[in-house]
Amino acid sequence: MIRLIVLVALFGVLARAQEPAYTPRKLEASLRARADQAIGAGKLKEAIELYTGWLRADPSDADAWYNLACCHALRRESNSALDAFETSVDAGWSDRNHPKQDGDLATIRTEPRFIAALKRIKSGPKGPAPQGFKRHDLTATTLGTYVVMLPPDYNKTKRLYPICVILHGSGSSELRHGMYADRFGRADVIFVVPRALHPHVGVTMRSGRAGWTVWPPDPVEEMNTIAMTQHAAWVMQCVADARKRYRTAPGRIFIWGHSQGAAGANCVAALYPDKIAAYCAYAGYYPEKIITDESLAALAKSGVGVLLLHGTKDTVVQPQGTKDVEVRMRKAGVAVTVKWFECAHGVAPEVATASIAWLDKVVRP
Protein backbone atom coordinates (compact mmCIF):
# COMPACT_ATOMS: atom_id res chain seq x y z
CA MET A 1 0.00 0.00 0.00
CA ILE A 2 2.84 2.38 0.89
CA ARG A 3 4.52 1.62 -2.47
CA LEU A 4 1.27 2.35 -4.27
CA ILE A 5 0.96 5.73 -2.56
CA VAL A 6 4.56 6.54 -3.45
CA LEU A 7 3.97 5.59 -7.08
CA VAL A 8 0.82 7.71 -7.27
CA ALA A 9 2.69 10.65 -5.77
CA LEU A 10 5.58 10.11 -8.19
CA PHE A 11 3.24 10.04 -11.20
CA GLY A 12 1.67 13.27 -9.91
CA VAL A 13 5.07 14.96 -9.70
CA LEU A 14 6.00 13.80 -13.21
CA ALA A 15 2.68 15.00 -14.60
CA ARG A 16 3.14 18.40 -13.04
CA ALA A 17 6.70 18.55 -14.34
CA GLN A 18 5.41 18.05 -17.87
CA GLU A 19 2.79 20.81 -17.53
CA PRO A 20 3.89 24.09 -19.12
CA ALA A 21 4.72 26.82 -16.64
CA TYR A 22 1.98 29.42 -16.28
CA THR A 23 2.94 32.73 -17.85
CA PRO A 24 0.59 35.61 -17.09
CA ARG A 25 -0.66 37.33 -20.22
CA LYS A 26 0.23 40.95 -20.72
CA LEU A 27 -2.96 42.96 -20.69
CA GLU A 28 -3.72 44.88 -23.85
CA ALA A 29 -4.06 48.65 -23.70
CA SER A 30 -7.55 49.77 -22.72
CA LEU A 31 -9.86 51.47 -25.19
CA ARG A 32 -9.21 54.69 -23.28
CA ALA A 33 -5.42 54.38 -23.62
CA ARG A 34 -5.72 53.53 -27.31
CA ALA A 35 -8.07 56.49 -27.81
CA ASP A 36 -5.58 58.84 -26.12
CA GLN A 37 -2.84 57.52 -28.41
CA ALA A 38 -5.04 57.97 -31.47
CA ILE A 39 -5.96 61.57 -30.68
CA GLY A 40 -2.30 62.33 -29.94
CA ALA A 41 -1.43 60.99 -33.40
CA GLY A 42 -4.17 63.04 -35.04
CA LYS A 43 -6.23 59.94 -35.97
CA LEU A 44 -9.52 61.58 -35.10
CA LYS A 45 -11.93 59.06 -36.64
CA GLU A 46 -10.21 56.17 -34.88
CA ALA A 47 -10.13 58.14 -31.61
CA ILE A 48 -13.89 58.80 -31.84
CA GLU A 49 -14.63 55.09 -32.27
CA LEU A 50 -12.38 54.17 -29.33
CA TYR A 51 -13.68 56.89 -26.99
CA THR A 52 -17.26 55.92 -27.87
CA GLY A 53 -16.55 52.29 -27.01
CA TRP A 54 -14.83 53.26 -23.78
CA LEU A 55 -17.66 55.55 -22.69
CA ARG A 56 -20.23 52.78 -23.12
CA ALA A 57 -18.36 51.01 -20.31
CA ASP A 58 -17.54 54.12 -18.25
CA PRO A 59 -19.99 56.96 -19.01
CA SER A 60 -18.75 58.88 -15.95
CA ASP A 61 -15.32 59.64 -17.47
CA ALA A 62 -15.58 63.41 -17.90
CA ASP A 63 -12.09 63.69 -19.46
CA ALA A 64 -12.98 61.14 -22.14
CA TRP A 65 -16.21 63.00 -22.98
CA TYR A 66 -14.18 66.21 -23.27
CA ASN A 67 -11.64 64.57 -25.58
CA LEU A 68 -14.49 63.16 -27.66
CA ALA A 69 -15.89 66.69 -27.99
CA CYS A 70 -12.46 67.87 -29.20
CA CYS A 71 -12.35 65.12 -31.85
CA HIS A 72 -15.77 66.02 -33.21
CA ALA A 73 -15.03 69.75 -33.11
CA LEU A 74 -11.79 69.28 -35.06
CA ARG A 75 -13.80 67.36 -37.68
CA ARG A 76 -16.35 70.20 -37.69
CA GLU A 77 -19.10 67.88 -36.44
CA SER A 78 -20.62 70.60 -34.30
CA ASN A 79 -23.73 68.86 -32.98
CA SER A 80 -21.79 65.78 -31.90
CA ALA A 81 -19.09 67.99 -30.36
CA LEU A 82 -21.67 69.96 -28.39
CA ASP A 83 -23.39 66.77 -27.23
CA ALA A 84 -20.08 65.39 -25.95
CA PHE A 85 -19.03 68.66 -24.32
CA GLU A 86 -22.36 69.02 -22.51
CA THR A 87 -22.06 65.43 -21.32
CA SER A 88 -18.52 66.08 -20.06
CA VAL A 89 -19.90 68.90 -17.91
CA ASP A 90 -22.71 66.66 -16.65
CA ALA A 91 -20.12 63.99 -15.82
CA GLY A 92 -18.11 66.42 -13.70
CA TRP A 93 -15.74 68.37 -15.96
CA SER A 94 -14.63 71.15 -13.60
CA ASP A 95 -12.16 73.39 -15.49
CA ARG A 96 -14.03 76.43 -16.76
CA ASN A 97 -10.97 78.20 -18.15
CA HIS A 98 -9.36 75.53 -20.34
CA PRO A 99 -12.28 75.06 -22.80
CA LYS A 100 -12.28 78.80 -23.48
CA GLN A 101 -8.63 78.61 -24.61
CA ASP A 102 -8.51 75.12 -26.14
CA GLY A 103 -7.98 75.47 -29.89
CA ASP A 104 -9.54 72.04 -30.42
CA LEU A 105 -12.94 73.52 -29.53
CA ALA A 106 -12.61 76.67 -31.63
CA THR A 107 -15.34 75.58 -34.06
CA ILE A 108 -18.01 75.43 -31.33
CA ARG A 109 -16.84 78.16 -28.94
CA THR A 110 -19.42 80.73 -30.07
CA GLU A 111 -22.34 78.28 -30.02
CA PRO A 112 -25.05 79.11 -27.44
CA ARG A 113 -25.01 75.51 -26.18
CA PHE A 114 -21.25 75.72 -25.53
CA ILE A 115 -21.60 79.02 -23.66
CA ALA A 116 -24.50 77.66 -21.61
CA ALA A 117 -22.53 74.52 -20.72
CA LEU A 118 -19.57 76.66 -19.61
CA LYS A 119 -21.83 78.52 -17.21
CA ARG A 120 -22.90 75.21 -15.66
CA ILE A 121 -19.33 74.25 -14.77
CA LYS A 122 -18.88 74.51 -11.05
CA SER A 123 -15.52 75.96 -10.11
CA GLY A 124 -14.03 75.38 -6.71
CA PRO A 125 -14.13 72.27 -4.53
CA LYS A 126 -16.55 69.44 -5.19
CA GLY A 127 -18.83 68.03 -2.56
CA PRO A 128 -20.03 69.61 0.68
CA ALA A 129 -18.55 72.98 1.64
CA PRO A 130 -19.25 75.50 4.39
CA GLN A 131 -21.43 78.48 3.60
CA GLY A 132 -19.78 81.80 2.75
CA PHE A 133 -16.17 80.63 2.90
CA LYS A 134 -13.29 82.77 1.56
CA ARG A 135 -10.35 81.22 -0.27
CA HIS A 136 -6.79 82.55 0.00
CA ASP A 137 -3.89 81.12 -2.01
CA LEU A 138 -0.56 80.94 -0.22
CA THR A 139 2.69 79.31 -1.28
CA ALA A 140 3.32 76.21 0.81
CA THR A 141 6.67 74.66 1.65
CA THR A 142 6.80 71.05 0.50
CA LEU A 143 9.31 68.32 -0.24
CA GLY A 144 10.07 67.81 -3.91
CA THR A 145 12.55 65.69 -5.82
CA TYR A 146 14.77 65.99 -8.86
CA VAL A 147 17.25 63.72 -10.60
CA VAL A 148 20.65 64.42 -12.14
CA MET A 149 22.31 62.64 -15.06
CA LEU A 150 26.06 63.19 -15.15
CA PRO A 151 28.26 62.98 -18.25
CA PRO A 152 30.13 59.67 -18.66
CA ASP A 153 33.53 61.19 -17.92
CA TYR A 154 32.42 63.19 -14.86
CA ASN A 155 34.52 61.18 -12.37
CA LYS A 156 37.59 61.14 -14.65
CA THR A 157 38.00 64.89 -15.10
CA LYS A 158 37.95 68.12 -13.16
CA ARG A 159 35.93 69.95 -15.78
CA LEU A 160 32.99 72.22 -15.10
CA TYR A 161 29.90 71.23 -17.05
CA PRO A 162 26.94 73.34 -18.23
CA ILE A 163 23.51 72.60 -16.77
CA CYS A 164 20.62 71.71 -19.03
CA VAL A 165 17.27 71.35 -17.26
CA ILE A 166 14.73 68.93 -18.74
CA LEU A 167 11.10 69.76 -17.90
CA HIS A 168 8.58 66.96 -18.29
CA GLY A 169 5.05 67.05 -19.64
CA SER A 170 1.88 66.89 -17.56
CA GLY A 171 1.32 63.37 -16.27
CA SER A 172 4.92 62.29 -16.90
CA SER A 173 7.75 62.19 -14.36
CA GLU A 174 11.37 63.12 -13.84
CA LEU A 175 12.38 59.54 -14.66
CA ARG A 176 10.34 59.05 -17.83
CA HIS A 177 11.39 62.38 -19.33
CA GLY A 178 14.83 61.98 -17.78
CA MET A 179 15.42 59.19 -20.31
CA TYR A 180 15.67 61.88 -22.99
CA ALA A 181 19.13 62.59 -21.59
CA ASP A 182 20.15 59.16 -22.89
CA ARG A 183 18.38 59.77 -26.18
CA PHE A 184 20.06 63.14 -26.66
CA GLY A 185 23.49 62.02 -25.45
CA ARG A 186 24.90 62.74 -22.00
CA ALA A 187 28.38 63.87 -23.01
CA ASP A 188 29.57 67.29 -21.82
CA VAL A 189 26.34 68.23 -20.00
CA ILE A 190 24.84 67.82 -16.54
CA PHE A 191 21.12 67.19 -16.97
CA VAL A 192 18.84 68.25 -14.12
CA VAL A 193 15.23 66.99 -14.21
CA PRO A 194 12.82 68.32 -11.55
CA ARG A 195 9.60 66.47 -10.83
CA ALA A 196 6.55 68.74 -11.00
CA LEU A 197 5.12 69.34 -7.55
CA HIS A 198 1.58 67.95 -7.83
CA PRO A 199 0.28 64.43 -8.54
CA HIS A 200 -1.71 64.06 -11.74
CA VAL A 201 -4.71 62.18 -10.38
CA GLY A 202 -6.27 61.41 -13.77
CA VAL A 203 -3.14 59.85 -15.26
CA THR A 204 -2.47 57.85 -12.10
CA MET A 205 -6.01 56.47 -12.01
CA ARG A 206 -6.08 55.59 -15.70
CA SER A 207 -2.59 54.12 -16.08
CA GLY A 208 -1.81 52.86 -12.60
CA ARG A 209 1.55 54.65 -12.61
CA ALA A 210 2.34 57.91 -10.88
CA GLY A 211 2.26 61.06 -12.99
CA TRP A 212 3.05 64.62 -11.98
CA THR A 213 1.89 68.05 -13.05
CA VAL A 214 2.34 71.77 -12.38
CA TRP A 215 -1.35 72.17 -11.63
CA PRO A 216 -2.84 71.49 -8.17
CA PRO A 217 -5.77 69.04 -8.08
CA ASP A 218 -8.13 71.78 -6.86
CA PRO A 219 -9.46 73.37 -10.08
CA VAL A 220 -9.39 77.03 -9.07
CA GLU A 221 -8.61 79.25 -12.05
CA GLU A 222 -6.89 81.93 -9.98
CA MET A 223 -4.23 79.41 -8.92
CA ASN A 224 -2.95 78.75 -12.46
CA THR A 225 -0.53 81.67 -12.59
CA ILE A 226 0.52 81.10 -8.98
CA ALA A 227 1.17 77.41 -9.69
CA MET A 228 3.34 78.09 -12.75
CA THR A 229 5.24 80.83 -10.91
CA GLN A 230 5.85 78.42 -8.03
CA HIS A 231 6.97 75.78 -10.53
CA ALA A 232 9.50 78.20 -12.04
CA ALA A 233 10.87 79.00 -8.58
CA TRP A 234 11.12 75.27 -7.83
CA VAL A 235 13.10 74.69 -11.05
CA MET A 236 15.59 77.36 -10.03
CA GLN A 237 15.79 75.87 -6.54
CA CYS A 238 16.74 72.50 -8.06
CA VAL A 239 19.42 74.20 -10.14
CA ALA A 240 20.83 75.97 -7.08
CA ASP A 241 20.98 72.69 -5.16
CA ALA A 242 22.64 70.87 -8.07
CA ARG A 243 25.31 73.62 -8.22
CA LYS A 244 26.22 72.86 -4.60
CA ARG A 245 26.58 69.15 -5.28
CA TYR A 246 28.28 68.97 -8.69
CA ARG A 247 30.94 70.68 -10.76
CA THR A 248 28.82 73.01 -12.83
CA ALA A 249 29.94 75.80 -15.11
CA PRO A 250 29.23 79.28 -13.75
CA GLY A 251 26.79 81.53 -15.51
CA ARG A 252 23.46 80.92 -17.14
CA ILE A 253 21.71 77.61 -17.63
CA PHE A 254 19.85 75.94 -20.51
CA ILE A 255 16.37 74.38 -20.58
CA TRP A 256 14.69 71.78 -22.81
CA GLY A 257 10.97 71.24 -22.25
CA HIS A 258 8.14 69.21 -23.77
CA SER A 259 4.43 70.13 -23.67
CA GLN A 260 3.75 71.38 -20.13
CA GLY A 261 7.54 71.33 -19.73
CA ALA A 262 7.82 73.60 -22.77
CA ALA A 263 5.33 75.97 -21.17
CA GLY A 264 7.48 75.77 -18.07
CA ALA A 265 10.60 76.62 -20.09
CA ASN A 266 8.82 79.67 -21.51
CA CYS A 267 7.77 80.77 -18.04
CA VAL A 268 11.09 80.12 -16.28
CA ALA A 269 12.84 82.20 -18.94
CA ALA A 270 10.21 84.95 -18.70
CA LEU A 271 10.51 85.12 -14.91
CA TYR A 272 14.31 84.64 -14.67
CA PRO A 273 15.70 86.01 -17.96
CA ASP A 274 19.07 86.88 -16.44
CA LYS A 275 19.55 83.25 -15.34
CA ILE A 276 18.83 81.58 -18.68
CA ALA A 277 21.24 81.44 -21.62
CA ALA A 278 18.90 79.68 -24.05
CA TYR A 279 16.00 77.26 -24.11
CA CYS A 280 14.29 74.83 -26.48
CA ALA A 281 10.52 74.40 -26.11
CA TYR A 282 8.74 71.61 -28.00
CA ALA A 283 4.93 71.52 -28.32
CA GLY A 284 4.52 74.22 -25.72
CA TYR A 285 1.99 76.85 -24.82
CA TYR A 286 2.31 80.35 -23.43
CA PRO A 287 0.47 81.34 -20.22
CA GLU A 288 -0.70 84.84 -21.06
CA LYS A 289 -0.31 86.29 -17.56
CA ILE A 290 3.40 85.33 -17.54
CA ILE A 291 4.36 85.57 -21.21
CA THR A 292 3.59 89.28 -21.43
CA ASP A 293 5.01 91.95 -23.73
CA GLU A 294 7.11 93.13 -20.77
CA SER A 295 8.57 89.67 -20.16
CA LEU A 296 9.37 89.28 -23.87
CA ALA A 297 11.18 92.61 -23.79
CA ALA A 298 13.20 91.33 -20.81
CA LEU A 299 14.11 88.17 -22.77
CA ALA A 300 15.35 90.32 -25.63
CA LYS A 301 17.34 92.58 -23.29
CA SER A 302 19.01 89.60 -21.62
CA GLY A 303 19.86 88.01 -24.97
CA VAL A 304 18.09 84.72 -24.24
CA GLY A 305 18.17 82.44 -27.29
CA VAL A 306 14.85 80.73 -28.01
CA LEU A 307 14.16 77.67 -30.16
CA LEU A 308 10.48 76.76 -30.55
CA LEU A 309 9.59 73.37 -32.05
CA HIS A 310 6.07 72.22 -32.88
CA GLY A 311 4.31 69.49 -34.84
CA THR A 312 1.82 70.61 -37.46
CA LYS A 313 -0.40 67.61 -36.64
CA ASP A 314 -0.43 68.28 -32.88
CA THR A 315 -3.98 68.05 -31.52
CA VAL A 316 -2.95 68.16 -27.85
CA VAL A 317 -1.38 71.63 -27.91
CA GLN A 318 -2.47 73.64 -30.91
CA PRO A 319 0.34 74.94 -33.19
CA GLN A 320 -1.40 78.31 -33.52
CA GLY A 321 -0.06 79.41 -30.13
CA THR A 322 3.51 78.99 -31.35
CA LYS A 323 2.71 80.90 -34.55
CA ASP A 324 1.24 83.75 -32.53
CA VAL A 325 4.08 83.97 -30.02
CA GLU A 326 6.69 83.93 -32.79
CA VAL A 327 5.19 87.17 -34.12
CA ARG A 328 5.23 88.69 -30.64
CA MET A 329 8.80 87.58 -29.95
CA ARG A 330 10.13 88.97 -33.21
CA LYS A 331 8.34 92.24 -32.53
CA ALA A 332 9.97 92.38 -29.10
CA GLY A 333 13.43 91.66 -30.54
CA VAL A 334 13.81 88.16 -29.05
CA ALA A 335 16.37 85.94 -30.79
CA VAL A 336 13.82 83.26 -31.70
CA THR A 337 13.99 80.40 -34.19
CA VAL A 338 10.91 78.29 -35.00
CA LYS A 339 10.98 74.86 -36.63
CA TRP A 340 7.96 72.86 -37.77
CA PHE A 341 7.61 69.09 -38.15
CA GLU A 342 5.03 66.84 -39.78
CA CYS A 343 4.24 65.05 -36.53
CA ALA A 344 1.79 65.01 -33.65
CA HIS A 345 2.52 65.68 -29.95
CA GLY A 346 5.10 63.02 -29.13
CA VAL A 347 8.84 63.49 -29.49
CA ALA A 348 9.23 62.14 -33.02
CA PRO A 349 12.69 61.14 -34.32
CA GLU A 350 13.02 64.36 -36.31
CA VAL A 351 12.23 66.39 -33.17
CA ALA A 352 14.89 64.48 -31.23
CA THR A 353 17.38 65.15 -34.04
CA ALA A 354 16.65 68.89 -33.90
CA SER A 355 17.01 68.83 -30.11
CA ILE A 356 20.38 67.09 -30.34
CA ALA A 357 21.54 69.65 -32.90
CA TRP A 358 20.51 72.43 -30.50
CA LEU A 359 22.42 70.79 -27.64
CA ASP A 360 25.50 70.32 -29.81
CA LYS A 361 25.49 73.88 -31.10
CA VAL A 362 24.25 75.87 -28.10
CA VAL A 363 24.71 73.88 -24.88
CA ARG A 364 27.78 71.68 -25.19
CA PRO A 365 31.11 73.52 -24.83
Structure described in brief:
The N and C termini lie far apart (84 Å).
Order of helices and strands: HHHHHHHEEHHEEHEHEHEHEHEH
Instruction: Specify the biggest β-sheet.
Output: 7 strands, mixed
> Strand-residue fraction?
5-15%
* Oligomer category: single chain
As laid out across the biggest beta sheet, the strand order is 1-3-2-6-7-8-9
Helix content: 40-55%
What's the total count of β strands? 9
Class from helix and strand fractions: alpha/beta
Radius of gyration: 25 Å
Number of helices: 15
Average pLDDT score:
87
Task: State the shape.
Answer: globular
Q: Termini separation (Å)?
A: 84 Å
Low-confidence stretches: 1-22
Summarize the structure in words.
47% of the residues lie in helices and 12% in strands. Helix 12 links the parallel strand 6 and strand 7. The termini are far apart. The N terminus is likely disordered.
Task: Indicate the topology.
Blueprint: H1 2-18, H2 31-40, H3 44-57, H4 62-74, H5 78-90, H6 98-101, H7 112-120, E1 146-149, E2 163-167, H8 174-178, H9 180-184, E3 190-194, E4 198-199, H10 201-207, E5 212-213, H11 223-245, E6 253-258, H12 260-271, E7 276-282, H13 293-302, E8 305-311, H14 320-332, E9 335-341, H15 349-363
Parallel strand pairs: 2-3, 2-6, 6-7, 7-8, 8-9
Antiparallel strand pairs: 1-3, 4-5
